[in-house]
Here is the input.
Amino acid sequence: MDFAGETVPIVDPVSGEIEHAYVYVAVLGASNYTYSRGYDDAGFEIIGGLDLQCSGVF
Here is the structure.
């Protein structure tokens, strides 16, 4: 479980504005289940709840 390096550009199709998303990835090894999600911030508040979010999916 970790953020996946570089940010990903997201382009608003109407305005053309570019924002960057931090991609969080978690993999459940034996089953190859993968959880990923984009966030506009990689701050402590986000990190604190990620384990609960992905464990609810697995």
Notes: The chain has one domain: 2-57. The mean pLDDT is 79. The CA atoms of residues 25 and 36 lie 4 Å apart.
